[in-house]
Amino acid sequence: KSLVHYLLFVVCPVVRMARVFVYGTLKKAQPNYFRMENTSNGQAEFLARARTIEPYPLVITTKFNIPFLLNEPGTGQRVYGEIYRIDQKMLDFLDRFEGCPERYQRTEIQLEVQDGEGENTLKPGSIEEVFVYSRREPEWLQNQTYESYDAFGDHGLKYVLPEDRSPE
Ligand code: PCA
Which of 79, 83, 138, 141 is 20 to 30 A from residue 43's alpha carbon, by CA? Predict the structure, then answer.
């Protein structure tokens, strides 16, 4: 078999990587960040802080105070978060963890890379298209929106980890 065949069918599947924008509990210093760092879930490499190009409603809801970015561009606020490069294993983990496609859908979103204090590996101001876990839920469009999620913020809405939830 040829070198081209080797590169296409042997190397490519191994190095296949995705990029994901996290805006909620998966961000640094948030309650689920440890799952991104746990290599038994796969690999995740921080790339940059970023902000959505379009406004979206970021709401905190359900009795477990879960943050959701609603897939309703043009309403709400431009949302801040972090871009990670992840391998297929981490993508599979996150899909399972986020209850995709039942609780969240994985869609694509356009982002503007922020200025990072030397930690960004993407060019500030560049526009990137990456995966995001979002949801379509018309009822929640009335909720208060946030431009940046912080589980420990003034809103006082304490996030409940999946392993601590009583049956819904
Ligand atoms: N985790 C995902 C979606 C919301 C959440 O809690 C994230 O941080 O992007």
Answer: 79
